[in-house]
């Protein structure tokens, strides 16, 4: 593999020590994300390579210019390096982030030693504001009714919570039914929960959708 072979030759010829660090980054699906790699203390960097594992090259800066000959097809026209514009900034910008981009990325830059920064990229997507509706209106008064709470386009798998008058509802399995569907293209989740119970006038029924990775919750409520 041409680029990695070149880099290995450099390591063998000039290698003194290897400095490694690890970090993580969160990207929003469909948006840009910056994978940080700070090399501001190094003035004479000739080789900068971003890669996944040992063989997938994401982007590279070789001997004074950007080298995309060995770039993985999945990253073509989606990445940007700032090293030539701003010395000391070895970060990588990636556009149109998707679930398929979840990897551990390695930033390797060469001075008198080999330096590596490992960046673990996780991605997420916000769930839509839930749609809370009365599913059916029984003709008989004073009986239990079924309510549905639906939300779309979130990642990773979220969780729907039901509340009555701002208190968490503990209901039997027979009274609640949850479903989740995953979009074949985006990989995001559409969630739905139905709840059957008897409510009284002035009760406030709410549902909330929790995204654990974003630590975010969206709400909807229905006043009876």
TrEMBL record:
Main location: membrane
GO cellular component: external side of plasma membrane
Keywords carried by this UniProt record: Disulfide bond, Immunoglobulin domain, Membrane, Transmembrane, Transmembrane helix
Places the protein is found: Membrane
Cross-referenced PROSITE patterns: IG_LIKE (PS50835)
InterPro entries: CD80_C2-set, Ig-like_dom, Ig-like_dom_sf, Ig-like_fold, Ig_V-set, IgSF_BTN/MOG
Domain Ig-like: 130-219
GO annotation, biological process: regulation of cytokine production; T cell receptor signaling pathway
Gene Ontology terms, MF aspect: signaling receptor binding
Protein name: Ig-like domain-containing protein
Phylogenetic lineage: Eukaryota, Metazoa, Chordata, Craniata, Vertebrata
